[in-house]
Design goal:
Helix content is 79%, strand content 0%. The protein is an all-alpha fold and 169 residues long. It has one domain.
Length: 169
């Protein structure tokens, strides 16, 4: 069974006018220069210019603050590093002195042990040396730890000062 077809409608389309206004460059520049014909455009340009200048000024101000802060932080870190370097050099020097002293003490013990005549004399020398070394090492540890603590305190002082200035604002 065949489906009946509807007759096709014919629609007419009217031609569309496509007229384009041509303007020369000279006319464009006179229109832009004429404030009456370019009224809202001139206002928008002024608004955008002003907003751009304000944004640029704010950016310059923010950059100056960031630059000053970075310079302060750099100076603080340099000062802290210099203090830490001097302190570590002093700590190394003290450590080397302690090592030399302990080595000399051990060599003196060996010299004394080579001249002993009995085991009891060797035990007595060893016991006396151990007691002296314990006292010496206790003093050395105390001195080195207090020096290390002083170095840590002195090297962080510039950072603490800088942070207290920054957050005291």
């Amino acid at each position: 069974m065949a489906v009946p077809r509807k007759p096709a409608k014919i629609v007419s389309v009217a031609p569309v006018a496509t007229e384009v206004e041509t303007v020369s460059i000279a006319e464009t520049s006179t229109k832009a220069a004429d404030p009456v014909s370019a009224g809202p455009v001139v206002d928008l340009q002024g608004y955008f210019r002003k907003a751009t200048e304000q944004g640029l000024e704010q950016t310059r101000t923010a950059y100056a603050r960031i630059k000053a802060g970075a310079e302060d932080a750099s100076g603080t870190l340099e000062s802290s590093f210099a203090t830490a370097s001097k302190g570590i050099a002093e700590l190394n020097s003290k450590t080397m002195e302690a090592v030399k002293l302990n080595t000399d003490s051990a060599l003196e013990l060996w010299k004394a042990l080579t001249g002993v005549k009995s085991i009891s004399e060797a035990v007595q020398l060893q016991t006396e040396h151990a007691r002296k070394q314990y006292e010496t090492l206790s003093g050395q540890v105390k001195d080195l730890s207090s020096l290390a603590q002083k170095i840590a305190t002195d090297s962080t002082a510039p950072i603490k000062t800088s942070l207290s200035k920054t957050f005291a604002v």
